[in-house]
Amino acid sequence: MAAKIISGTEIAAQIREELKKEVADMKEKHGVVPGLVTILVGKNPASVSYVTGKHKAADELGFFSIQDDQPEDLSEADLLKLIDKYNKDPKVHGILVQLPLPKHIDEKRVLNAIDPDKDVDGFHPVNVGRLMIGGKEAKFLPCTPAGIQELIVRSGFETAGAEVVVVGRSNIVGKPIANIMLQKGKGANATVTVVHTGTKNMDAHCKRADILIVAAGVPGLVKPEWIKPGACVIDVGVNRVGEKKSEKTGKMVPILKGDVDFDAAKEIAGAITPVPGGVGPMTITMLMKNTVKSAKTHAGIE
Ligand code: NAP
């Protein structure tokens, strides 16, 4: 039987509806409006499009948001001053510095300057540590891994006691999702294996997975014979493999493929995320969720 297709587009829309109600409720009962600021240095076209998407989502949910676009030659000292200003601004609950930054700016120093309690991307070392400790300590989960967890849980897959195999060990996807799945509690409590370029017999590890999460950035890396029949497969990879003419606009657009051979894998898996339309739409939504959480924490709302 062909796999159920897990639509990130639909699940993200469902979460945004829930957030919209939560935001309206916060406004009405407590007079609190979640505030998000993005800082974009330069005009990298991909970054401009990501930032625009974040503000569109923030506007739809009724946030207060500031799009602080800065010139390419902004000095590191001036960027740090800007972050300090927003760290102190009580209307701002989430600060996001869009990456990559120009070469003359030390990315690490900049990210470390964000108040960990406003770090809605979850990349500050304090939040990485909080996730490692787990439980209530884990304040802001990084957005892509948090989205993956939501996709699994909302598709009805049981994580407790499941064999979860994660392909990839990056700081933004592989390591945090492995850590999330390892925690005690709902939507986690799994037995976790992480595989990478140093792993022997990767296929054998993947074949054991009840839930297989692939974040390698290698198109078609996971073959259908590596998948356990009935498994839940989350394909995080987004790989540009060519270009095609858009039927809507007539313009050339990239052809995107995941890390899993989707057409063959869907005949074996129990459920699978498509690329695009799987993990991708969840990331911005989880950023919004983190900002709402931050606003509530700052206002002392349970
Ligand atoms: P990354 O930093 O390049 O890390 C890739 C990881 O995969 C590394 O740990 C690497 O192992 C491992 N890997 C690469 N080739 C492998 C192979 N042949 N066999 C086993 N392991 C292999 O990438 P990332 O930032 O985690 O992103 C991964 C993919 O997810 C990319 O396609 C990216 O575009 C996509 N992504 C999507 C979203 C989204 O949809 N919102 C968000 C983030 C990332 P080593 O450590 O041993 O080198």
From TrEMBL:
EC number(s) on record?
1.5.1.5, 3.5.4.9
Any idea which positions bind NADP(+)? 168-170, 238
Looking up SUPFAM superfamilies in the UniProt record yields: Aminoacid dehydrogenase-like, N-terminal domain, NAD(P)-binding Rossmann-fold domains
* Listed GO biological process terms: L-histidine biosynthetic process; methionine biosynthetic process; purine nucleotide biosynthetic process; tetrahydrofolate interconversion
Q: Which residues form the Tetrahydrofolate dehydrogenase/cyclohydrolase NAD(P)-binding domain?
A: 142-298
Q: Write out the catalysed reaction.
A: (6R)-5,10-methylene-5,6,7,8-tetrahydrofolate + NADP(+) = (6R)-5,10-methenyltetrahydrofolate + NADPH; (6R)-5,10-methenyltetrahydrofolate + H2O = (6R)-10-formyltetrahydrofolate + H(+)
Involved pathway(s): One-carbon metabolism; tetrahydrofolate interconversion
The segment(s) forming the Tetrahydrofolate dehydrogenase/cyclohydrolase catalytic domain are: 6-121
Q: Name one GO cellular component term.
A: cytosol
**Top-level taxon of the source organism:** Bacteria
Protein's name in the database: Bifunctional protein FolD
- What is the originating organism of this protein? Candidatus Sulfobium mesophilum
The organism's taxonomy opens as: Bacteria, Pseudomonadati, Nitrospirota, Nitrospiria, Nitrospirales
Report which gene this protein is encoded by: folD
